[in-house]
Amino acid sequence: MLIAQITDLHLGFGSGGDFEDNAKRLRLVVKTLNELAPRPDLVLATGDLTDHGDLPSYKRLKKILDKLAMPVLFCMGNHDNRDVFRQVYPNAPFSGGFNQYAVDNLPLRILVLDTLETGRHGGGFDEPRAAWLEQRLAESDRPTLVVMHHPPIDTGIEWMTIGPSEAWVARLEPIVARHNNIVAILAGHVHRPIISAFGGTTVRVCPSTQPQVVLDLDPMNLDNPDDRPMIVAGPPGIGLHWWNGKALVSHYTDTDEQGRAKILARYTVKMQGFLKHLAHERAEGSAGH
Ligand SMILES: [Fe+2]
Ligand SMILES: [Fe+2]
Asked: Which-ligand-closest: CA of 77?
């Protein structure tokens, strides 16, 4: 099973409208995903779907994502608004007032969490949501993928990170740690690819379809704005997660990898012999040599 991930779409940033940069970027992502071979089975859109949680932006989101050739699962980010989202997606699954749900009809079970805490950038996961997760995890031992907007890890990028001592992170971690069938936690929010350990599994953060946060592990002095770059534009990022039946393999790239980089090798007759040699080596290895 192949799962694409898009995150932090932030539609409605700046001028808004059909021709805003983030709408253009999302249309490019949709085109890229539709042209992928093999084609992903589904798309996860992991929050910050809009920048201001406004109705025109959610309508624009639907108009653009309706062009996807595969189904899409949503989760809420700190820039989202549940009630406005539901006006545009009235059939979106909700439980206890949160956009939290289980998907049970796929080779990999998917649990989508809702970490939106209205008024906070840093997210939340209160007792009712924790109880919901406990109940879902108690239902099944199947390999399970947890999906949420906020990665509950110290990323080292201080201004964007979730405090590792935050109460909601401390509430979530032991629940995750008690279940060794969680193959990974997929998240967004930080606008760049990051991987870390959490509760005995991995948290994997997907780059944004919007501009990326700069890789900068040097903490900022909040009393001294030093003009350093914080956010940079570039091709929209995407994630591609392959469930091979044993492990979830995550790839992160952007929508213009081949356009941006100089191609140094192509599959030509010249490469054919080398590839045959590698295939032979694999076959020998499988035969125990
Ligand atoms: Fe975001
Ligand atoms: Fe966010």
From this structure: 2
